[in-house]
Amino acid sequence: MKISNYRNLIIDMDGVLWRGNTALPGLEEFVATIRNTKTRMVLATNNSSSTVDQYISKLKRMGVHVNPEEILTSAQATSSYLYKIAPKRSRVFVIGGDGITNAIRDHEFVLTEDDPDYVVIGIDKKITWEKLNTAVMNIRAGAKFIGTNPDTTYPTENGIGVGNGAILAAVKAATGISPLVIGKPETPIYEQALQRLKSNSSDTLMIGDRLDTDILGAQRAGITTLLVLTGVTTLEMSKASVVQPDLVLTGLPDITSGLLAV
């Protein structure tokens, strides 16, 4: 496959553009090439902890400028999905950072710990027993259980850290109930990304670092896939997996070269 055949990109962020607060090599050149080749992109992340403005600021510190409509978080996807299915002013208990909390609030749901209709869980780096217990009690009482994303780990500057999937697993273990997951590898976030790109699955390329979310989800949506080895997946892991991407590259410089290839 030729990367230059694709002018619509869905790009993961953690492990693709950066690790923690450190930009990965070739980030500025990669985005500059996207602009120069008139390629469209949506940065679609399963990390629900930050707001769009926070992601824009983070990228700006790394020398990259993006527009709000070019960022799609699992928090936004979850809130948009809930807005479609839930009655107005539904009561929601949220575990997570600013990203998911603000996204739920923006759709005018009532945030509460008491008798919620929904329990929504995103990555929370300050997770406590009290938060988990409140979630479990409410789900056992009948609240619907929704997770922003299933990633059990995520890449940091110091190694592989605990992801939201581990939190969801703890709540599932205590309730016996599986969450409805909105982020990758489920289809809602891909559908929203394609809508923003005004593209279809056949002319879009997904670039990600996780086989079980980025790559698997894109394949389910009929989107061509590119695995980059700067995140949680090694070449050995990729070779051993039942999920096989269309292309595997080492990092952003290789993708940049592919975008420029005639």
From TrEMBL:
It holds the Pfam family Hydrolase_like. One of its GO terms (molecular function) is phosphatase activity. InterPro entries: HAD-like_sf, HAD-SF_hydro_IIA, HAD_sf. It comes from marine metagenome. GO terms for cellular component: cytoplasm. This is Uncharacterized protein. The keyword Metal-binding applies. Keywords: Hydrolase, Magnesium, Metal-binding.
